[in-house]
Amino acid sequence: MIGNDWDHLLQEEYQKEYFKKLISFIEREYQDKTIYPKKSEIFNAFRHTSYQDTKVVILGQDPYHGENQAEGLSFSVKNCVRKPPSLQNIFKELQDDLKIPFPKNNSLIPWAKEGVLLLNTVLTVEERKPASHKDQGWEIFTDEVIKILNQKETPIVFILWGSFAKGKKKYITNKTHYIIESAHPSPFSAYNGFFGSKPFSKTNEFLKLRGLKIINWNVE
Fold first, then answer.
1. How far apart are CA 108 and CA 114, in angstroms?
2. Neighbours of 140 (CB within 10 A)
3. Is the pLDDT of residue 1 over 90?
4. pTM for this prediction
5. Is the preceding peptide bond at 84 cis, omega within 30 degrees of 0?
């Protein structure tokens, strides 16, 4: 389904009844409605960032629900569309934190290739209907992904923005890992603790201390 080590790690999950029902639901939705991302891009986060290569996890909720936005990675949108407000704020914080010029590109695929798993907890959405695929089984699946990552022996930085992402903290119990928490980058909350939180430099400082290669956060 994915094409790398995630398939082996998630093999048992694929066989569970909830997952089979979820896939049947998704198949019907794509037949009858406009669903994002493209079916071929649903598991892009896993394809671009193998389990072995994962050094950082950034948790989102569900995909963007506008035309040509979602590409299967949390907070990332295709380069052909305008930057959503949350992504603009992420790039503003990146600029302030690491003095990286505000990017022209939107896609965070370069981050994914650096080892940043850009994981939404719900992987599909109906056009113009945010959270429309909530409680269909995706949360069970992605919670299992977080539990599997928690078992990893090499350190991972978990970046949790907002209350929804922070709710997944209960699955991150391995003291090897490092959790960075702040407000969500949304315009409604960015000034309540997201701006100035310096998640990018904190991540690299942690990785460097553990003898791991730091992340190149430039997306150009």
1. 10
2. 15
3. no
4. 0.97
5. no
> At residue 138, what are phi and psi to the nearest 5 degrees?
-60, -40
Checking if the pLDDT of 64 tops 90, the result is yes
What strands, in cross-sheet order, belong to the sheet with 178-182?
A: 116-120, 56-60, 157-161, 178-182
Spatial contact of 98 and 201, defined as CB atoms under 8 Å apart: yes
Packing angle of the helix pair 85-98, 199-209 (nearest 10 deg): 50
Active site residues: 62
Name 32's Cβ contacts closer than 8 Å, sequence gap at least 6.
Answer: none
How many CB atoms within 10 Å of residue 74? Answer: 26
Give the mean pLDDT of the chain.
97
Percentage, residues of the chain above pLDDT 90: 99
Beta strand segments in 42-162, E:
56-60, 116-120, 125-126, 157-161
Residue 55 has pLDDT above 90, yes or no: yes
CA dist., res. 136 & res. 18, Å (int) = 9
